[in-house]
């Protein structure tokens, strides 16, 4: 059976639209090089997995191939969510008022949106090496939580990803160098509260959209 083929979605804004928070140079490299590499590697690994000779592979080869699929599929999913939850600075979706139900829930949980942002900041700056910070919504309890994921691991099953922040160096280093704190501070100017609230109100299947089947395999 033929393996599925994935493509990188276009950015929902111009490459320079997030300046001065994230430069055009970073966006071009991040989207057109890094995200494209994840998708190309994922497609290649899926083709290899579907090869009729797969039964001849050793257990270690199968495990290695699955690890490649896991890493690159996570990279594709995480970056797709990331582009969507950003918007040009000062645009209407970046106002907290664009997500009234979510901001009310954040205030109920952490006391204020500012307090939530400080908690999130601590999680982001506490990531060792490469990874992501997430605001998630538990499907079982309905609680909001802030978590981190290592490398390109997706948000754990049972949680809806509401807001994801990329803390890999390629997301900020060309502009912020070793000032991770500066990147984290500026990211709040380009959070798309309208999208994040939409995820808060929608089902997991609606959030992942065309990537739902891929996420289910990980």
Question: Which properties best describe this structure?
Answer:
single chain, 218 residues, mainly alpha, 3-stranded antiparallel beta sheet, 9 helices, 3 strands, globular
Can you put this structure into words, describing what you see?
The structure is a single chain. The chain is mostly helical. The protein has helices spanning 24-50, 59-84, 100-110, 113-125, 173-176, 180-187, 193-201, 204-208, 212-217; strands spanning 131-138, 144-150, 159-166. It has a 3-stranded antiparallel β-sheet.
Give the helix/strand layout.
Elements: H1 24-50, H2 59-84, H3 100-110, H4 113-125, E1 131-138, E2 144-150, E3 159-166, H5 173-176, H6 180-187, H7 193-201, H8 204-208, H9 212-217
Antiparallel strand pairs: 1-2, 1-3
Q: Give the oligomeric state.
A: single chain
Helix content: 40-55%
Rg: 18 Å
State mean pLDDT (0 to 100 scale): 95
Q: Approximately how much beta-strand content do the residues carry?
A: 5-15%
Shape category? globular
Distance between the termini: 19 Å
What letter string, H or E per element, gives the SSE order? HHHHEEEHHHHH
Strand segment tally: 3
Q: Which structural class do you get from the secondary structure elements?
A: mainly alpha
Biggest sheet character: 3 strands, antiparallel
Q: Strands of the largest sheet, in order across it?
A: 2-1-3
Provide a count of the helices.
Answer: 9
Poorly predicted sequence stretches spanning 5 or more consecutive residues: none
């Amino acid at each position: 059976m033929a393996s599925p083929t994935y493509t990188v979605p276009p950015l929902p804004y111009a490459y320079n639209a997030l300046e001065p928070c994230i430069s055009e140079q970073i966006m071009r490299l991040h989207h057109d090089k890094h995200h494209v590499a994840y998708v190309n590697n994922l497609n290649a690994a899926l083709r290899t997995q579907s090869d009729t000779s797969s039964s001849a592979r050793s257990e270690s080869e199968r495990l290695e191939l699955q690890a490649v699929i896991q890493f690159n599929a996570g990279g594709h999913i995480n970056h797709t969510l990331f582009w969507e939850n950003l918007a040009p600075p000062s645009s209407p979706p970046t106002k907290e008022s664009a997500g009234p139900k979510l901001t009310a829930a954040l205030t109920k949980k952490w006391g204020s949106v500012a307090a939530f942002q400080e908690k999130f900041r601590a999680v982001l700056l506490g990531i060792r090496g490469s990874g992501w910070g997430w605001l998630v919504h538990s499907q079982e309890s309905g609680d909001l939580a802030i978590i981190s994921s290592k490398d390109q691991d997706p948000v754990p099953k049972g949680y809806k990803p509401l807001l994801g922040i990329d803390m890999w160096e390629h997301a900020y280093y060309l502009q912020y160098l070793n000032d991770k704190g500066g990147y984290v501070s500026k990211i709040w100017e380009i959070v798309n509260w309208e999208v994040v609230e939409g995820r808060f109100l929608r089902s997991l299947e609606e959030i992942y959209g065309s990537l739902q089947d891929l996420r289910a395999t990980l």
